[in-house]
Model the fold of this input.
Amino acid sequence: MALANFIKNTCKKLGENNKPTYVVMAIATVKGICRPTFTMMDKTENSETKKYTALREGLTEAIAIPAYWGCGELAGGLAKKIFNKDKALAGRAEKNLMFIGVCTAALFVIPALCSVAIKPIMDAIGLKTPEDKKNQPNTQTQLQKTYTQTQINPISNKKPFPQMQTFTSRPQIGLRVGGL
Done:
């Protein structure tokens, strides 16, 4: 009986004092822990890609938690100021505006903060995207290859006038039916 009363009282307290900000912050915390962990456990992915992705996911949630908290509390404080005379309405308005603040954080604030902060943080740590590493040429070899090609045949980079596989005698405008 004592356990049943404890569970009943706990659920009652959580239901009465539950703020949207706390729920979303709890979800972001779990995502910040689990998503990088599951990313690192992936056996099929390249280790550099796993490191980059896991750190990026963790940083996103580390940015999200204070953004959720700040936007939710800011909106809730606004409700207290607006509805300070009507206490019954102020409680509902506070939670509703907190929810709107959390939604605003998810839609606008967090993506803006992530786009501003994550790249410089990743660069400071020394991690680059796997695509950046692939596209980053070995400058010495690339310069030698370019120099050699231009010395042998300076117009080798030019394509011959119209390639037959792309040439067509039909006009390329208007509606075409039948895939021809």
Notes: The chain has a mean pLDDT of 79. The first helix runs from residue 2 to 16.
